[in-house]
Predict the structure.
Amino acid sequence: DNQHQESTESSKPVHPDWEIPRSSLKLGKILGKGQFGEVRMGELRKRGVTETVAVKTLKASAEERDKEDLIGELDILVTVGRHDNIISLVGACTVGGPLTLVVEYAANGCLKDWLRNNRPKELNKTDDKDIATSGILLPMEQLITFGLDIANGMTHLAAMQCVHRDLAARNVLLGKDLTAKISDFGLSRDIYEESEYVKTTKSQLPIRWIAYESLFYHVYTTQSDVWSFGILLWEIMTMGKQPYGRMTGKELMKLLPGGYRLEKPALCPQDVYEVMKTCWETLPENRPTFPELKATLDRIIQDHR
Ligand code: ADE
């Protein structure tokens, strides 16, 4: 994708319909920091009305690659359109200063933090094998609903020919009623013409979430997002544990071909574990699709009521 090679200092907005005047944006406290830049809370004034938003900007030291990723994220959000389970684009400032992406503010922050903050204290101290018999209760319906929300958003994303490539609890945000919203499309790709994305150059991708064929053959499809979705379900059922614990990425890559996979979390219902396991089938075509995951999780929620 070479259509955005020109500097962002150029005078043409990237998506004129979405361009926001910098003067209408007031920046507030920092919500998150990355190596590329930061996300701040913000206030946007539009026709006399003020809206709380989240504002993503690049550091002055950001590399061309980071800039392209942020423009790419803007492109994806424009293409994908509105969906309750995908963070909405509000607009962007692409001329006359640093590249700035403005998105919907998610009042309950990131899913990973929510899981860790709402984790029963006993879960940290108790030995893993004792947890199952400990009587500790998790907000199970809420947890499975997070999974259902994400499967809903991913169904829409997949229908729009978009592969996310970085689906993980850290990249899911929670709205004011705890609606899960998929976010961080910086690594996402439009696969309209090829149906798969073959990554040619190596870069730091999060190994623990990456599908078998992506790790070994650099092929990314919606079905590799399904693998990551399975890991994300595991994160949810452990209230935010690190997948594969202290194992290194190198060790993991040695074990996956022999069929090694994550174990059932102590408090995870068997039917939910069966779902995540199918997401980790070696062959992408043997994994469920997102619409199938939606239907299955919907049924599981009904069964658990
Ligand atoms: N942290 C990162 N992005 C956010 C957003 N859109 N809303 C709330 N917190 C965030």
